[in-house]
Amino acid sequence: MIILVSAKLTDMKNIAILLAVLYCLPASAQDSITRAVVPQTSVKKHVTLDENSIVRDSAGNRYDYDAWHNLYITGKYRMITKRDVPGEYFLVKLSQEELDRRAESMPKPRETPWFTTGAPVDAFKIKDINGHTFSLKDMQGKVVVLNFFFVDCAPCRQEIPDLNTLVSSYSNNSDVVFLAVALDDKYRLKDFLKENPFSYPVAADGRWLTEKTGITSFPTHVVIGKDGNVLFHTAGGGPGVFHWLKKSIIQATGS
């Protein structure tokens, strides 16, 4: 379900789209609720968009609910109305400049209750599905970027393309180590990765590690600096997460 908050703005330059943080719980992914500010009327009101709402692309083609909803919650699109087409909404893709500007204006994502900025993470050792061992102790002196997820978590799946872009940008930097820890077993995970390629090395059966650290919401992200202390941590999806992951890595590496 999408809830649009409509208001007439005197300064049209600063129309913001506010995305609710998306969380997944281990048992099932929660429904997402997104709030947006749309110039439309002088009276502020809530407009609920659901399966019956008419949402079109810029060419006027109508989306089905799943298509527009999944695009909108990525934070890469905005919803607009047109006075000559009342009751209909148009989904417009943001330019890279708009995405960058929005990311810069967003507040830092909320920190998790299970990690502490400036404090170390308890040592652990785990193997990825290809048999490679990752030891936090052995990775001291490197920047470690952790992702915790499970395959049925919708926000976890939605952020994979952005995370792959992040990995690609540091493919030639051996001082940055990426690792994803999944709750699922290796066999289910391998089937998932065939359809959803993920550039992070992925460890299966990671529930023991999430229980050890206290993680209960997904996806959870952690960036650990070269000194072994946490630089950034957050849970949930949203466009601001990618920006702050990258910003934290740049802070840790200087590039």
From TrEMBL:
Residues 115-255 form the Thioredoxin domain. InterPro entries: AhpC/TSA, Thioredoxin-like_sf, Thioredoxin_domain, Thioredoxin_ResA/DsbE_sf. The keyword Signal applies. CDD domains: TlpA_like_family. Residues 1-29 form the signal peptide. Pfam families: AhpC-TSA. One of its GO terms (molecular function) is antioxidant activity. SUPFAM superfamilies: Thioredoxin-like. Gene3D superfamilies: Glutaredoxin (3.40.30.10). Keywords: Signal. The keyword Signal applies. This is TlpA family protein disulfide reductase. It comes from Deminuibacter soli.
